[in-house]
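stage 2 :: seqdesign
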């Protein structure tokens, strides 16, 4: 579907669509601003337990920002190289936003911590998306990703526990 077709279906001018969604892919990832900001909004120290608590809360509510999206949406994303590329960019933007938010650490520490924390979130997001696209039931996905997430946050705790 073209942006012109989207505008026509929404009964708005094409410029209205492009003003709100500068990239066609952002029509699909309409929560991109929330997604990018989500890690930077986590507050608390020690650092890793704060992110673990926030992730657990998102897992409990099956948050779309953790990849819970429904099978049709998940398949559309995983089958589209363009959408997967945009998703990678959004993960990178989220990591940079987190590094900026960790301004109470020196730049190298902030960037390293952000890369590790965002990396865990990306891996878990990708697993949710992959399993959803494969048609696994949401409770099974949540249970499997929950176990994987706990292991990954344990690894983060071992490396970043002093922050």
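stage 2 :: out
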């Amino acid at each position: 579907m073209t942006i012109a077709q989207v505008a026509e279906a929404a009964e708005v001018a094409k410029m209205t669509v492009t003003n709100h969604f500068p990239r066609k892919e952002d029509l699909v990832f309409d929560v991109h601003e929330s997604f990018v900001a989500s890690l930077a909004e986590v507050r608390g120290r020690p650092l890793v337990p704060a992110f673990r608590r926030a992730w657990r809360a998102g897992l409990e509510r099956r948050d779309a920002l953790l990849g819970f999206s429904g099978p049709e949406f998940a398949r559309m994303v995983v089958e589209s190289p363009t959408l997967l590329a945009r998703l990678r960019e959004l993960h990178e933007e989220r990591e940079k936003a987190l590094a900026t938010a960790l301004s109470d650490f020196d730049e190298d520490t902030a960037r390293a911590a952000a890369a590790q924390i965002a990396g865990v979130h990306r891996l878990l997001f990708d697993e949710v998306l992959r399993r959803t696209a494969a048609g696994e039931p949401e409770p099974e996905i949540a249970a499997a990703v929950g176990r994987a997430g706990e292991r990954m946050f344990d690894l983060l705790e071992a490396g970043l526990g002093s922050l």
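stage 3 :: structure notes
- The chain has one domain: 24-160.
- The longest helix spans residues 107-133.
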